[in-house]
Amino acid sequence: MKGNIKKQQKAIKKQPEVSSKGLYQKTNDFFERNRKTLFVLSMIAGILMSILLFDVKVSLSGDDSDYILYADNFWRHFTFPGFRGPLYPIVLSPFIGLFGMNLIVLKSLSAIFILLSVWFLYKSFRDSIPAIILMPALFLVSICSFVFFYASYTYSEPFFMFLQSVFIYYFAHNFLSADKVSHDLKTNWHKYLILGVLALCMGLTRSIGYSVVGVVILYFVINKRWKDLVYTLTASILAFCLFQLFKTIVWPDAGSAYDIKNYLAKDYYNPIEPESLIGFVNRFIKNSDIYLSAFLCQFMGVIPETPNNLLLINPIFTILIYLLFFCCLFAVLKQNKVLLFTGIYLGIMNFASFVILQSTWGQDRLIVIYYPLILLFLLGGIYYLFQLRAIQKFFFVYPLILLILCIGTLSITTNRIGRNYPVLQENLFGNQLYGLTTDWQNFIKGSQWATHNLDKNAVIVSRKPSISKVYTGRDFAWAPTDITVPFDSLVLLNDADNQTIVVVSGFLENPNLKYLISFNDRFPFNDKTTNSALVYTVSNANLEDFILSVQNQNLEYLLDYKSFLNSIQNVNTRISDPDMMLNYLIENDIRYLLLPQLRVDPTQNTGSYISNVHRFIWFISCKYPDSFRLLYVEGKEEPCEIVEFIR
C-alpha cells in the first residue's frame, strides 16, 4: 500500500496546474511530513480527554453496573453472562478478581480500549490512505467529548470499538492489501478462521456485530472473490457453532437477552404484536433522523449540544448526509479499497441498526461506536471528490471543512470539560456522590443505610439493584413493576348467587379486591374519566355497606359488570393481581423494599417520579393494607423510604 500512496502522489504531480494546486500540495505535504508527530499529539489529546472527562460515578441507567455484576458473577461463580453481550464482562472479570469493584480501575479500562482502537485504526490506514485524510480524522476523534464520555463508563461500547478496529486492521492487512493474491485454503485456512473468530467476538460483545459477516460477503461479491466469500462464510459459521457447542456443554442453562422476537415486535418489552413492513420503513426513517441529523451532527460539532436531542432532528440534514455518503462511496469506489470496505461496513452496520432497533431506544452510544470510521470515510470521500478534475480548483474547501469541524468539536468539548471538572475534583477529594441530583443521592444513601442496618441475609428489593450493589457491596433483588394476568381472567370472573362484582374508579382498601385494571389513556367511567379501575367481588350480605363506603369516598362505581367488560375489550389495559404479587414477595423471601423517588425528568424536580416499586406495594396494599411498615426515610426532599414486608 505504501507503493500505492507514492503512485497517487506522483500522479497528482503530473496533473495540470490549477489555482488551488499550491494549497493542495502544501496541505498534503504538511500532513505527510508530520504524520507521526500528529499521531502522537492525537494520542496525548485522547489521554487528556480521558482524564478531564472522567466520571468516578456509575451511570444512572444501571447498564454499566450490570456489566460489573456479570463480571463479578463470572469470576466468583463461573456464571455465564447470558444477558447482553457476554464477552465484555468475561474480559472484565479478571480485573474484578484482582481489584474488586474498584470503579476507577474498571472505568480506566474503557479509556484504554478507546485509545487502543485509535491506535489500531492508525495502523490499519496509515499505509493505505493519505495522511491528509487520516491524521485530521484521528485528531477530531481524540478531541470528541461524546467518544471519550464512554472512556469512563463500563459500557461495552469502548470494548466493541477496540474489537472493531482490530477486525478492520486484520482484514485490511490480509484481505485488502493482497487482492490479486489467491488465498489457497491449504496454506491460508487460519486467516479465514481468525476472521470468523473476530466476527464471533464482535457479535458476542454487541449483537449487531454479527452483521460484519454480511459486510465481508458484500465486499467479496462486489470484487467477485467467490472463494474468499465461501471460505469466510464457512469459517464464521464454524466459529459460531463451536462456541454454541462449548456453551451448551459448559453452561447448559445459560440464556440470552437477544431474542430476535423482541426486535421484530412493535414494542421490544412487549413482543406480542409483530412489526409491519411499513413499521420497519418508519423505523429506518425515524432512526436515520435521530442518529444522523441529531447525534452525528453533534459529534462533528456542526450543531449545538442540547439535553433534548429530539429537538435537533432535521430531516434535511439526514438527506444531505445520505447524499454525501453515496457521493463519497462513488468517489472511493475505484480509488481506495480500504475506504470502500469502510463505507460498506458503515452502510450495512448502520442500516441493520436503523431497521432492527425500535426508535424508542434513541441513545448516542448506538452510533458513537462508528464515529471514527464515519469521519475517516467522509473525509476520505470528500478528499477524492476534490481530486476530480472538474472540481479540483475548489480544493480549498477541504481545509475549511477540517477547520469548521475542529472549531465545532472543541467548542462542545470545552463546555463539557468545564461542567465535568468541578464535579471530578469533588469526587476525587472524597465527596463520592457530588454531581448527582438529590433523588439519586438519597437512593444510594438509602441503599447504604439498608446494608449497614438490616439483616445481612435478608432479601432487599431495589429499583436499581446493580447500582445499589456497586455502592454497597451487598446483593439486592429486583421486583417486577406489577404481575399481570390476561384479559380472559376478567371474562372468567362472573357474578355468583351470593356475590356481586363491583367496579370502582379509584383507590379503596378492601379485602374483596380481585383485580386492578390500568388504562394507557383516560377511560370514560360514568360521567368522569379515569386511569384505573378496581374490580371487587362482594358478598350480597355486605354489598350495601360496601356501596356506602364507596359513596363516602366520592368514588364512581358500576354494578353492570358485563357491560363494563364489553366497553374495555378493545382498550389497551394491564390487569394486575394483588394476590399473585403478594405471593411473589413470599416465594422470593423478600423482606425489605427501597422506595426511591427517582425523577421522571432527570434534569429537574417536577414532582413526578418513577413509581414502579411504589405501585407494586400500592397494588398489594389495596387488598392487604397492613402488609408494609415504614422503617426509615433518607432525605427530606425526593426521599428514599425503606419499608418492611410483614407476612
Mean pLDDT: 88
Strand content: 5-15%
Main β-sheet: number of strands, strand sense, barrel status?
6 strands, antiparallel
Based on secondary structure, the structural category is alpha+beta
Quaternary structure classification: single chain
Strands, count: 10
Instruction: Report low-confidence residues grouped into runs of 5 or more.
Output: 7-20
What's the shape?
A: elongated
Distance between the termini: 74 Å
Spatial order of the strands forming the largest sheet: 2-7-4-5-3-6
Query: What is the number of helical segments per DSSP (H or I, 4+ residues)?
Result: 26
Total discrete domains: 3
| Rg value | 29 Å
State the helicity in percent bands.
55-70%
Task: Please characterize this protein's 3D structure.
The chain has 647 residues and is α+β, with helices and mostly antiparallel strands. It folds into 3 domains: 2-414, no CATH class; 438-481 and 583-645; 484-576. Helices cover 58% and strands 10% of the residues. It contains 26 helices and 10 strands. The strands form 2 sheets. The chain has a 6-stranded antiparallel beta sheet with strand order 2-7-4-5-3-6, with helices on both faces. A 4-stranded mixed beta sheet has the order 1-8-10-9, with helices on both faces. Strand 4 and strand 5 form a beta hairpin. It is elongated, with a radius of gyration of 29 Å. The model is unreliable at 7-20 (pLDDT under 50).
